[in-house]
Amino acid sequence: LIATTLARKSVNLMQLVYGQTVSNQGSAVSDSSESEGSDDEDFFKPKGQADKGTDDKSSSDDVNSEDCSKFMKSEFKDWHDRDLIESIRDRFVTGDWSKAAK
Amino acid sequence: MGKVAYKRLKGCRHLRQRLVLATLAGTPVVVDDIRSEESSPGLRSYEVSLLRLLESISDDCLVEINETGTKLRYKPGVLMGGKRHVHDCGLSRSIGYFIEPLIILGLFGKKPLTIRLKGITNDSKDPSVDTFRTTTLHMLKRFGVPIGDGLDLKIERRGAPPLGGGDVLLQIPIVPSNLSAAHWIDEGMVKRIRGIAFSTKVSPQTVNSMIYAARGIFNSFIPDVHIFSDVRTNATGGSSPGYGISLVAETTTGCLISADMAVSDRKTDEMEEEMDEKPNLIPPEELGERAASMLLEEIEQGGVVDSTHQGLLFILCALCPPDISKVRVGKLTPYGIETLRNIRDFLGVKFDIKPDPNSGTVLLKCLGSGMKNLSRKVS
């Protein structure tokens, strides 16, 4: 069961990025010819990015949105919070090495 | 010359990436409907500036813009590189906007590129020059670009918006034939945090408050924190007051995760006004704290690069020789997703994207397009 859900999830991510053409990538030829047509659709069809974070969604769907690689967040977590600190403790060398290794 | 098949695109979204990929793939492009619905249609001054920059570093390239600026025709030429280029980046976007495409294009030139860029060095929209120096250039190392050998960014003057006055010297070597594929999935643990806090034409005390505030956040994680201060007062400080901070977390496997923030008083930019609705003036203490939080959030997300560098990472992977590259990133950003699409459209490289449920990261695999440095071969 875990394997199937995993597989589905990976397809979803591929679809999210490349659109529906992923499912029938039988031959490279048909894929390339199709991409011409689907290109234009790409610009109009907002590919669902709902689960990719609700922030900044509107700007990424806009054809003329700003060209900016920096991903800005307007809200920040409060890193004085003890639970939050503990949650990434093991990403540092001061944390638990065995836990981080897995 | 016969008829050229132009690739048709719409809108100015991700214009830089598209131009970069079009240049490398040698695909002429036509971009229609550039802000045609807006009250001020057409290309912005920074986009025109970027096109002029492309013209100056390449040979036999053609840029045509129609009267209203809503249509652009670009036929890439041969990338020449060369020394003693000077480009005034203008004041509507910072130098970071121009360095991002230059880094990739410079690698595939005929000669190593040395260019002096003038304008705004640090602003809140683009990656700052400090980030490029500390993080971005080191990323190239992973793909077989020799570091230290003509790969350098010197910040001779800083310039904060709105008046800029900054001056940086960028040196990029060429790749002899091609890049080398990277297997880069081990992000390691954060072992130290470095940073630079700068101020131009304001009291040096602001720098100290930024450092103090950022350090306050990091103290509960790691003791090895060192943030350098860079106080610029006279001519080296540009023409406007401003301050900012750039932080880098270095991991045990040598990955660099960066975050930067800058503040300044931007009033003269009328075009940008619609974008900047929130007040831009943040006190230094809060700025330091926010930058630190941003870095911690990047660390929390995982991956070998921070969210800002995802696009560059994917492009580099796609330009590798036909070999498997494997990278790990945190949550895909909208910009990163768009990069993946553009790479598919121009280079025909499709990534295999798999989420890693254990760490909440995303693993990407791709077969490089086998991009060779053709400009060099021709000579």
Keywords summarizing the entry:
heterodimer, A: 102 residues, mainly alpha, 5 helices, 0% strand, flat, B: 379 residues, alpha+beta, Translation Initiation Factor IF3, Dihydrodipicolinate Reductase, domain 2, four-stranded mixed sheet, ribosome biogenesis (chain B), Putative RNA 3'-terminal phosphate cyclase-like protein (chain B), nucleus (chain B), RNA3'P_cycl/enolpyr_Trfase_a/b (chain B)
Short description:
The complex is a heterodimer of chains A (102) and B (379). With 102 residues, chain A is mainly α.
Verbal overview:
The complex is a heterodimer of chains A (102) and B (379). With 102 residues, chain A is mainly α. Chain A has one domain. Chain A has five helices and no strands. Chain A has helices spanning 2-18, 28-44, 57-61, 82-87, 97-101. Chain A is flat, with a radius of gyration of 20 Å. Chain B is α+β, with helices and mostly antiparallel strands and 379 residues long. Among the domains of chain B are: 1-77, 2-Layer Sandwich (Translation Initiation Factor IF3); 190-269 and 279-301, Dihydrodipicolinate Reductase, domain 2, CATH 3.30.360; 306-376. Chain B has helices spanning 15-25, 45-57, 95-107, 129-141, 205-218, 284-301, 310-318, 334-347, 374-378, and strands at residues 7-10, 29-32, 58-59, 62-65, 72-75, 78-79, 82-88, 113-119, 152-157, 166-172, 183-184, 190-200, 225-232, 242-251, 256-264, 324-329, 352-356, 361-367. In chain B, strands 1-2-5-4 form a four-stranded mixed sheet, covered by helices on one side. A four-stranded mixed sheet of chain B has the order 7-8-10-9, with helices on one face. A four-stranded mixed sheet of chain B has the order 11-16-18-17, covered by helices on one side. In chain B, strand 1, helix 1 (15-25) and strand 2 form a beta-alpha-beta unit. Residues 268-278 of chain B have low confidence and may be disordered. At the A-B interface, helix 1, helix 2 and helix 3 of A face helix 1, helix 6, helix 8 and strand 17 of B.
